[in-house]
Automatic annotation (TrEMBL):
Keywords: Acyltransferase, Transferase
Domain N-acetyltransferase, residue spans: 4-159
Name of the protein described by the UniProt record: GNAT family N-acetyltransferase
Organism annotation: Streptomyces racemochromogenes
CDD domains in the cross-refs: NAT_SF
Pfam families cross-referenced by the UniProt entry: Acetyltransf_1
Keyword Transmembrane in annotation: no
Length: 159
């Protein structure tokens, strides 16, 4: 896939991020976690008011560096990531998702690279992520990008 854009999310992207993140959680974790836990994840992480508020404070503090989006040539948001540097020298990916029909096309890789650049600019020398469950479908993606297991659900790598 040729991405038209990986950029900081704008207020107009909030609904697309909310839908995309909810769709990815349901598809990836529905059978692994069950309906109730998936519903809680979607409710906690995908609410439109929450995402709107988070977009409104991009880079507001090192612990929160904001949302990034990847858009295709038509401008449709096909991926999103959020992160920050919550402790000195340590970056954290809070969310990273790609539209199911755009996976394995470089979208997640482009978002991960952009988040890493943003974190390095704020002093991070490592990057971590916590996955929602052991055996998460995203595990091969992250290990491919140099992440190693710190715990069964926590992964890290050097930037």
């Amino acid at each position: 896939m040729l991405l038209a854009d990986v950029r900081t999310a704008a207020p107009r992207d909030a609904a697309a991020i909310s839908r995309l993140l909810a769709e990815a959680i349901r598809e990836d974790y529905g059978s692994l976690l069950g309906e109730m836990r998936v519903g809680r994840l979607v409710s906690d992480h995908c609410s439109l008011p929450r995402i709107r508020a988070e977009i409104g404070i991009p880079g507001g503090a090192p612990a929160w560096l904001g949302w990034l989006v990847a858009a295709d040539a038509d401008g449709t948001v096909v991926g999103a990531a959020s992160g920050g540097v919550p402790f000195p020298s340590g970056g954290e990916i809070y969310s990273l998702c790609t539209a199911p029909d755009h996976r394995r096309q470089g979208v997640g890789t482009a978002l991960l690279a952009a988040a890493g650049r943003r974190m390095r600019a704020h002093g991070a020398v490592s990057q971590r992520i916590t996955l929602p469950a052991e055996g998460a479908p995203a595990l091969p993606f992250f290990t491919h990008h140099g992440f190693t297991a710190l715990t069964p659900v926590r992964l890290g790598r050097t930037l």
